[in-house]
Design a protein that fits this description.
This protein has 363 residues and is α+β, with helices and mostly antiparallel strands. It has eight helices and 20 strands.
């Protein structure tokens, strides 16, 4: 539905041209929700603005619904692209009420839309976002969450082919953000619209998107389904950016023909893991806190178990985060259910399931 091929965009600075987007290509299928995820300055918002027609790339092709809207030969202006957009600031007009904010795209549309049709379509989308009863409420009397709903209703009232969202939840407080994330995910799937959104929030991307593209320095460094990227990161950057990660420096001591290697860690510990790195290679071992088991005694068949001592614990409601000193100046974070015998200062064993471990060649 949306195809971006070889997109390149640079900006002039006092120190010379900076390439914000560097030969980026991706495809968003019909009715799919696709996230561009990455830190500030990685180029994700620039891509969104190029797709919207707010920026013009010097190279690359952008096609929406099979129609080329940007390439070397021509550039379709933003008002002629079948898109709806929700800005980070929502851009709600304070002098208009809810109804008129949402109706504005239809009121200025060409060819003209009949007043009766405008009324019907506006009330339909307001009902969809739960704002029908507030149609005549002044914009100045809306909460952050209500403004977000109005911005979304305004974006979809024209029935666009593509919905673009620029950090749509970043201006909400944490509690409201969680609620709106669930509502937004439900709404996008309910109306079956194709959506492209950018965010630096990995929870937002993983929970909303069907596919995620992780970006760094203007390039897509990994793309895939949320679970695939989280569980099988292809680089240390991706592993660290997506959620909490324990990173242990190690060295491959020996490796068998099946790819299993004995890896020496600090503090005299060893793990047996699958890796393509050869003997003598420095590696980084990535362990997710929630994938580690913790107990007062090692299990009978524990091949990969590390002894340590609890130095701190943080109660987090249903779980406890344990900070475990494993020697050599290294500690591991473990997220697990509370256990009565696991207290500060207690000796413990950390069980490691090789299926949930990522190993990368060290730098």
């Amino acid at each position: 539905m949306l195809t971006v091929t070889g997109l390149t965009k640079s900006f002039a600075t006092a120190d010379g041209a900076v390439r914000a987007v560097d030969d980026v290509s991706f495809t968003v299928a019909e009715a799919q929700c696709y996230a561009l995820l990455g830190p500030s300055g990685c180029g994700k918002t620039t891509i969104l603005r190029c797709v919207a027609g707010l920026e013009q790339a010097e190279q690359g092709v952008i096609a929406i619904g099979g129609r080329v809207v940007s390439d070397a030969d021509h550039f379709v202006p933003v008002h002629e692209r079948s898109i709806g957009m929700v800005f980070q600031s929502y851009a709600i007009w304070p002098h208009l009420d809810v109804f008129d904010n949402v109706a504005y795209p239809l009121a200025v549309a060409r060819p003209r839309v009949a007043r009766a049709e405008i009324e019907q379509r506006v009330m339909d989308v307001l009902a969809l976002v739960g704002m029908q009863a507030m149609a005549r409420r002044p914009a100045t009397r809306l909460s952050g969450g209500q403004q977000q709903r109005v911005a979304l209703a305004r974006a979809i009232v024209r029935r666009p082919s593509l919905l673009l969202l620029d950090e749509p939840l970043s201006n909400l407080d944490a509690r409201l953000r969680d609620a709106m994330r669930r509502e937004l995910a439900t709404l996008i799937r309910q109306i079956g619209i194709t959506a492209l959104f950018v965010t630096h929030d990995q929870v937002e991307a993983l929970s909303l998107a069907d596919r995620v593209a992780v970006m760094d320095q203007g390039r897509i460094v990994q793309e895939g389904a949320p679970a695939e990227i989280y569980d099988r990161p292809k680089s240390l950057f991706v592993a660290r950016f997506l959620g909490a990660a324990n990173v242990l420096a190690g060295k491959v001591e020996e490796r068998d023909c099946q790819g299993r290697a004995r890896i020496a860690l600090g503090g005299g510990h060893h793990l047996v893991l699958v890796t393509e790195s050869g003997s003598g290679t420095a590696v980084d071992v990535v362990l997710r806190p929630e994938n580690l088991a913790i107990a007062a005694q090692p299990s009978a068949d524990a091949v990969n178990a590390i002894a340590g001592r609890i130095v701190a614990l943080t109660f987090q409601g249903s779980n406890v985060e344990y900070d475990v000193d494993i020697g050599g100046g290294t500690s591991l974070r473990v997220l697990a259910r509370a256990q009565a015998d696991l207290t500060r200062g207690a000796p413990v064993w950390i069980g490691i399931d090789p299926r949930y471990v990522a190993v990368f060649s060290g730098s």
